[in-house]
Design a protein that fits this description.
Blueprint (H helix, E strand, L loop, with lengths): L5 E7 L7 H6 L4 H6 L2 E7 L3 H7 L5 H18 L8 E5 L9 H9 L3 E6 L23 H8 L2 E4 L2 H7 L6 E3 L22 E5 L5 H4 L3 H8 L5 E6 L10 E5 L5 H5 L4 E4 L5 H4 L4 H8 L4 E3 L5 H4 L6 E3 L3 H13 L1 H18 L2 H9 L4
Parallel strand pairs: 1-2, 1-3, 3-4, 4-5, 5-6, 7-8, 7-10, 8-9, 10-11, 11-12
Helix pairs in contact: 3-4, 9-14, 12-15
Length: about 350
């Protein structure tokens, strides 16, 4: 008699292929799960239309309507929950309110919920266009969900240490890329004109602004391009800025045209929870990184081997200038960076670790 396949329900906030967190925390592993004989069903809280407006300014009635419909979908889903062996919950079942859906799934229906997060989501934090929603976030529920969960999966050691206060089953699960089928392009460093790159969501553009004075100072001496890959056009003005609207199809090929990757950050409790995914992307494509030594960044970047760390204007200026002027250095650092990602932050290196969540 054929053994029944395990079934996993993935609960995310957004539709597939649009959210970096969902794409690389779970969607990346769909083939791995299928090869392991595990069936997958995805159930987003918001549909495509809801996702398209949720981060826009205003539109409170429309946003409220989509959140209400999201709750309805979650409640209807409870009737089908019995056929799943595991539920992989990314961040929370609903973006606002108490952990009511989680309580029903875990305490009433006795489901094994694997709780995954890649930010310090217990800290009150929303995008600038949704500040009114902050009071409804109920970030206190995060520790409660950690207590209830079958297992907790977190993207760096800082997040793991938080979860360990409430759960005895916590797995360090880094955010990875597929270095064989997706992030498999090597940046070309034999170029006449340097392109300095930054990639990320609109909510993190504020960090790039930290190094704009450095880039403007460098532009007085050198001619180079600045490429920003984002889901929203930046509002700041700087010479030779190339804005590329993010798309899944072009994200790798566009980033691979860069020779230097930037990740400036402020140092605070929220950024301690960042999982350094920009750095993983840069290094996977053989692009040396220049970043702030904040949070997990020093674990991903090996100082002076595959990138540089900077705290001051002078350090940022010096590190970027050094890489701009030395093709051999960029190549050497890029090769070391890609090797690091293949060994520690690739789908291929992490798949067994990920699969261990489902036993």
């Amino acid at each position: 008699m054929e053994k029944r396949k395990k079934a996993v329900l993935f609960l995310g906030q957004y539709p597939e292929k649009v959210s970096p967190g969902q794409r690389f925390r779970f969607e990346l592993y769909k083939d791995v799960l299928a090869e392991a004989g595990i069936q997958i069903t995805s159930a987003p809280f918001l549909n495509q239309k809801g996702y398209s407006i949720i981060h826009q300014k205003g539109l409170l009635f429309s946003k409220g309507s989509h959140i209400f419909m999201g709750y309805c979908r979650r409640l209807l889903l409870l009737f089908a929950a019995g056929r799943f062996d595991y539920i992989f919950l990314y961040r929370e079942a609903a973006p606002v309110g108490p952990p009511f859906i989680e309580w029903l799934l875990i305490k009433v229906l006795n489901k094994k919920v694997i709780y995954d997060f890649d930010d310090a989501i217990w800290i009150p934090h929303v995008s600038e266009n949704n500040t009114r929603a902050l009071a409804l976030k109920n970030v206190g529920k995060i520790k409660t969900i950690c207590k209830w969960a079958y297992k907790v999966s977190a993207g760096n050691e800082y997040l793991c240490n938080y979860a360990k206060q409430f759960s005895a089953s916590v797995l360090y699960n880094p955010t990875c890329v597929d270095t064989e089928r997706k992030h498999n392009i090597i940046a070309n460093h034999d170029v006449d004109r340097i392109t300095i790159g930054w990639t990320g969501s609109f909510s993190t553009l504020k960090y790039l602004e930290l190094v704009l004075p450095v880039l403007e100072a460098l532009q007085k001496k050198y001619d180079f391009d600045i490429k920003v890959i984002c889901n929203q056009q930046p509002s700041f003005t700087i010479k030779n800025l190339q804005y590329v609207e993010w798309s899944e199809e072009k994200e790798v090929s566009e980033l691979a045209t860069c020779q230097i990757g930037l990740m400036p950050l402020t140092s605070d409790e929220w950024t301690e929870g960042k999982c350094g995914f920009k750095l993983v992307q840069y290094l996977s494509l053989g692009i040396p990184a220049v970043s702030s030594p904040v949070g997990v960044n020093p674990k991903i970047v090996d100082k002076d081997i595959n990138g540089f760390f900077c705290n001051s204007f002078e350090e940022w200026y010096g590190a970027i200038e050094k890489l701009m002027l030395d093709t051999t250095l960029r190549k050497r650092m890029g090769e070391a960076g890609r090797k690091k990602i293949i060994n520690q932050y690739s789908l291929q290196s992490n798949k067994e670790n990920f699969l261990s969540l489902f036993n």
